[in-house]
Amino acid sequence: MEQLEEKGLYAALEAVLFASGEPIPMQRLCLALDASEEDVSAGCKHLADEYSYQRRGIRLLKMNDSYQLCSAPEYAEPIRKALERRKPPQLSQPALEVLSVIAYYQPTTRAYVEQVRGVDSSYTVNLLLERGLIQEGGRLDAPGRPVLFQTTELFLRCFGLTSLDDLPALPQSEEAERLAAELLSAQSRQDTPEGEEAPS
Q1: Which of 2, 49, 69, 200 is most deeply buried (CB count within 10 A of its CB)?
Q2: Which residues contact 1 (CB under 8 A, 6 or more apart)?
Q3: What is the pLDDT of residues 122-153, one digit of tens each?
Q4: The dihedral of CA 72, 63, 171, 94: what is its sign?
Q5: 146, 111 in Cβ contact below 8 A?
Q6: Is 22 within 8 Å of 56 (Cβ atoms)?
Q7: How far apart are the C-alpha atoms of 165 and 5, rounded to whole Å?
């Protein structure tokens, strides 16, 4: 297929994103539209600016290297009424705490989350897994090989983030610094070959 002209690219890009309903990676968009990453990126920026400037009812979200169309947040109430859906249950304070620890220290284990919070977090971690806000991201190379957890694209979408770089800076505290030092020390011991001392 010959490369689409500018206006044709915008329309085709809009059609693909609308039909998908899910985030589409940049590479797949380039293949589908037979266009370069530079052209697709410019097309996405054009559509996003157009929707925002014209105060349209849809928005174009960028999440890491993927794009997705969604409804404008200011029209959530009429959408809810039209579709007769109840508002999704809000996250509890414990759930927000667990989610925050995972978001800032990912990939991390449930044990580390519990060390930071000081309470058992099994139920809350499972709840966040069910909601699709976190996912398993491998296993830690340690005794028992505990599961590592990380946030998902749904997390980015729900909190209006383009990437994890958009998270606000984490305020430092003595407790956080102490835990981070312990974690680094433990990691250093794991990485040091048997019979050798970890560098000071």
Answers
A1: 69
A2: 34
A3: 999 999 999 999 999 989 888 889 999 999 98
A4: positive
A5: yes
A6: no
A7: 34
